[in-house]
Amino acid sequence: xxxxxxxxxxxxxxxxxxxxxxxxxxxxxxxxxxxxxxxxxxxxxxxxxxxxxxxxxxxxxxxxxxxxxxxxxxxxxxxxxxxxxxxxxxxxxxxxxxxxxxxxxxxxxxxxxxxxxxxxxxxxxxxxxxxxxxxxxxxxxxxxxxxxxxxxxxxxxxxxxxxxxxxxxxxxxxxxxxxxxxxxxxxxxxxxxxxxxxxxxxxxxxxxxxxxxxxxxxxxxxxxxxxxxxxxxxxxxxxxxxxxxxxxxxxxxxxxxxxxxxxxxxxxxxxxxxxxxxxxxxxxxxxxxxxxxxxxxxxxxxxxxxxxxxxxxxxxxxxxxxxxxxxxxxxxxxxxxxxxxxxxxxxxxxxxxxxxxxxxxxxxxxxxxxxxxxxxxxxxxxxxxxxxxxxxxxxxxxxxxxxxxxxxxxxxxxxxxxxxxxxxxx
Amino acid sequence: xxxxxxxxxxxxxxxxxxxxxxxxxxxxxxxxxxxxxxxxxxxxxxxxxxxxxxxxxxxxxxxxxxxxxxxxxxxxxxxxxxxxxxxxxxxxxxxxxxxxxxxxxxxxxxxxxxxxxxxxxxxxxxxxxxxxxxxxxxxxxxxxxxxxxxxxxxxxxxxxxxxxxxxxxxxxxxxxxxxxxxxxxxxxxxxxxx
Lengths: 426, 194
What we know:
The complex is a heterodimer of chains A (426) and B (194).
Chain A: H1 8-14, H2 41-48, H3 63-76, E1 80-84, H4 87-98, E2 104-108, H5 113-125, E3 129-133, H6 138-144, E4 149-155, E5 157-158, E6 163-164, H7 167-177, E7 181-184, H8 189-192, E8 202-206, E9 220-224, H9 237-240, H10 251-255, H11 259-272, H12 278-289, H13 291-310, E10 315-319, H14 329-335, E11 343-348, H15 351-361, E12 366-367, E13 377-379, H16 391-396, E14 403-407, H17 413-425
Parallel strand pairs in A: 2-3, 2-4, 4-7, 7-8, 12-13
Antiparallel strand pairs in A: 1-9, 5-6, 8-9, 10-11, 11-14, 13-14
Helix pairs in contact in A: 1-3, 3-12, 4-11, 15-17
Chain B: H1 8-17, E1 20-24, H2 33-43, E2 47-51, E3 59-60, E4 63-64, E5 78-81, H3 88-95, E6 104-107, H4 114-122, E7 126-128, H5 133-140, E8 153-154, E9 173-174, H6 181-193
Helix pairs in contact in B: 1-5, 3-4
């Protein structure tokens, strides 16, 4: 019998889950418990010393969360994963393993506004210095590399305008610089893009968005590609050096190609504390089972709506990589052939006031600060998600004052188009 | 044998069939990876023999250390080498003097010596390099899933609740086998550059 690779939809339903050993329950149980009993003193010591597989305390690991972790690792083609409380928590935990105070990381300028804030302000207070580069100009990443660079961070499909990043080109820069490439794959989900196949070493997600998919549970996840060699040159001491927290264990030596995920768990999650509720893990797992079905519908709807908007007289421009004449269409064909995602922006000829009027007249689209929900969503980034940026930075990140962002849901596209039509027309 | 990646069935066949394992380079220091692996494999029912000339006269989890493979004095199924790549060849050469020969020579995570592997394979011995038997056992049984690791196996069967000292089923459906494609590629690039 030769090993055979099941398809994506099979993994979305099965990976990580099995009937419960104790009860036979087929759905993954919600292990709503803080702690787990030890068999005896030796078992406890083995678990605390990272010598045995098992559960101690839900801040370090939980069986429901573990199913979610293995499932996303399988969908992304990674060696292991760690679920945390939010996408933001995932980013803190990842960079804590990689940067010491005074170190730098390079980040694409086109990012979710919340990430731009986190990198600019919160991380600066930790002594982690972000250096911005332009994802449309690969050479700007090369120019940003210094001896203190420890990582490169990009989004596969970038918020808010749904632009597509050339992951392979930037991974080449990362490899040359000897640093890992971190890809936030939230807006694509592994159904559309698997960044590890294009050279990513670490993938992060806000599970809150398309993976969970129903706008009901926050969560984040870190996927270890198992591709980066942490042992060279003492550059990543959290992984390569003996850890005093664990009696001198070297994580890379002990855990091989999933050492990064273990570091995030036993040094990051354990000490920083942003644990995911097992209930949220259950909700997100249930969402992931239908990810392939939902994501295709999200994309098909988004393309139809982008085409409608592009032909509407009140619309100045539409940024959607799935449109044939879009700047990012070539990259979309290469990286996301099944669809260019469902989050994009457009601008109105009537500017800011027309945007405000549109949002207030929409009946089906919900005005809120989230994306990747079954429901269609609308927001004006300049006054909300990107409001803390100055005007120049707003325009650079694709969130100018005349821009409206949509996240297209899985309703009937005819109803969404009718809603936009009445709100634009009247 | 292609030593860049192994089909799950190859690893499964080895872990399902061997009973006794001599661990060369086993350490009594409880934060060393060899100690973890020794303890885990003993708990999963393997007959473990610690081999380390520096610790003769001591015991590891109740098993007396021996100085060399020849000192074991009984047939062994598998030799698990916990030494750097540069120290593999002498161990393999010693293994080839045993009668009967071991069925398997396993080199730990990070250890690889293709010339030594070729010699062992020429004598009909199965070889695994740059893998950890604890991780592989945990992966194929899915016990390692507790740590968020991608076991790359699926099963719709109800497993027994694992307890200490119990052998686990390794016969789950494989998802592609070996390591992930990306980590395999990275390891191959590294060995070609190295």
